[in-house]
Amino acid sequence: MSNADIGLIGLAVMGQNLVLNMARNGFTVAVFNRTTAVTDEFVAAHPGKKLIYTRTLEEFVAALQRPRKIMIMVKAGKAVDAVIEGLLPLLAPGDLIMDGGNSYFADTERRGDALASAGLLYMGVGVSGGEEGALWGPSIMPGGSQEGWALAGDILAAIAAKAPEDGKPCVAYMGPRSAGHYVKMVHNGIEYGDMQLIAEAYDILHRGLGLEASELADIFDSWNQGELDSYLIAITAQIFRKVDEITGKPLVNLVLDAAGQKGTGKWVSQESFDVVAPTPTINSAVTERIISSMKAERVAAAQVLPGPNAQYDGDRQTLIDAVRQALYASKISAYAQGMAMLRTASEVHGYALNLAEIAAIWRNGCIIRARFLNHITDAFNRNPALANLMLDDDFAAAVRERLPAWRHVVQTAVALGIPAPAFSASLAYYDSYRSARLPANLIQAQRDLFGAHTYLRTDRDGVFHSDWG
C-alpha cells in the first residue's frame, strides 16, 4: 500500500538517524538498503516507529505516495549513480529524487540534467551536523528543482535544526541545479579552516607554554563563554577532558597525529582557483592534513632538520589571551574567504545565492555553528552587496582591535618554530586585501620579459610590451 510520505535509501548511521528524525516528526518513511540484513536489524531495533520495511527497489517505490519523494544517503560517486539507475525505470514524471550525501557539485549538475530529460525532479541536498545532527536536527542546504523544493520543503523544515535566537528552521532553498551541494562544499571548506585554526591554537599553547590537557580544557571552556562560542570550541574542551580508560592518560595525547579527509576541502581549494576566489586559510588546512599524513617522513625529518626551542619565555596569560584574539580574527578572515567565494561562484554559476540566508541556516545543526554567525547574517542583511565580510563596519572594528595580538601570535609561532600556516594565511589574506598596491607589478614585468605576455600601466591606457634588455 502506498502510504509512505517519503522514502530513504542507504541505512548507514546518517541515513538511519535521518529516518528516525523524520519518523519522530510524524512522517511515515519507507526504507531500503542494498544489504537487507542492515534493514532487518534497523527496523527490528525500532519497533512502533512509522517505518515501512522494503526488501527490493520495486517494493520501496510501490510504498511511496505520489508524487514520490526519495532521499538517497549513500557514498558519493558511483554508488549514487547506481541507485539512480535502479530507480529510473520504476519512477514516473514528477517524482523527486534528493541526494543527501556529499556529492561533488559537478556530478549533481550532470544528474539533474539527465533526470530532467526523463521528467523527474532532482535536488542536491547538503546535510551538515554529523550523526547527532541527522538525528536531532541538521542544517540543510537544498538546491535544484524548485518544484521539488515545494514538494519536500515541509519535511526538510520539520527535521532541520531550529535557530536558538528565533526558532527558525535551519534550512532554505539555496538555488538552482547544484547550488545546494556547492554551498555544502564551501561549508566543509570553512570547517577545514576552522578546525586547523583551533589545532594551531592548541599547538601554540601546548608546545609553546607546556599546557597540559586539563589546563587546555579549562581555557577552551572559558573561550566558549565569549566571542568564540561555537560547536567546535565546545567539543575541543570536551576532547581535552577525556581520559583514556586503558592508560589513565589524556586520550587526545594518544591519538595519532595524521588527519584524514574525504575530499570536500580539496574540492573547495580546486574550485576556488577555477572561479578565481582566494581561500588561503582553507588551502593551508588541506595542505596540513596532507603533511600530517606523512608521519614516517616527519619522524625521520625531525632527526635531521633543526629548529628553535619551542618554549615561550614571556608572560603566559598574555600569550593565552593573544591566541584567543588571534583565533577570532583568523576565523573572521576564514569566513570572509568562504563567503566571498560563494558570492563569486554565485555569479559564475548563476546560483543567485543569498549570503545572509546561508549564514542564518548555519546558526544551528551544522559543524561550523557559532555565535558569530548571527553577526555574519546581520552584516549581509545590512548590505546584501557586501563584497567582503571584513569591510562590514562591525567586523572591521573587531579585526582592527585584535590586530596587535594576531601579529604577536604569528610572530611568536615563527620564532618558536611551531607551524601556524592557517593563522599566517589568514593574516596574510587580510594584509593582501587591505594593500592598495601589491608587488604583482614586478611579476607582470617578469612575465613580459620572458614571455612577451604584455602589461598594463598605471599612468596611461592600453596594453604594452617592452624590450627589458
Structure notes:
The longest helix is centred in the last third of the chain and has 34 residues, at 316-349. This protein has helices at residues 13-24, 36-45, 57-62, 78-87, 105-117, 130-136, 146-159, 179-209, 213-223, 231-241, 264-275, 280-292, 295-302, 316-349, 355-361, 373-382, 393-416, 421-433, 440-451; strands spanning 6-9, 29-32, 51-53, 69-72, 96-99, 121-128, 139-144. Strands 3-2-1-4-5-6-7 form a seven-stranded mixed beta sheet, sandwiched between helices. Helix 1 (13-24) links the parallel strand 1 and strand 2 (29-32). The mean pLDDT is 96. 55% of the residues lie in helices and 7% in strands. The termini are far apart. The chain is built from 19 helices and seven strands. Helix 8 (179-209) packs antiparallel against helix 14 (316-349) and helix 14 (316-349) packs across helix 18 (421-433). The chain is of the alpha/beta class and 469 residues long. It is globular, with a radius of gyration of 25 Å.
Compose a concise summary of this entry.
The chain contains 19 helices and seven strands.
Helix and strand arrangement:
Blueprint: E1 6-9, H1 13-24, E2 29-32, H2 36-45, E3 51-53, H3 57-62, E4 69-72, H4 78-87, E5 96-99, H5 105-117, E6 121-128, H6 130-136, E7 139-144, H7 146-159, H8 179-209, H9 213-223, H10 231-241, H11 264-275, H12 280-292, H13 295-302, H14 316-349, H15 355-361, H16 373-382, H17 393-416, H18 421-433, H19 440-451
Parallel strand pairs: 1-2, 1-4, 2-3, 4-5, 5-6
Antiparallel strand pairs: 6-7
Helix pairs in contact: 1-6, 8-11, 8-12, 8-14, 9-10, 11-12, 12-18, 14-17, 14-18, 15-16
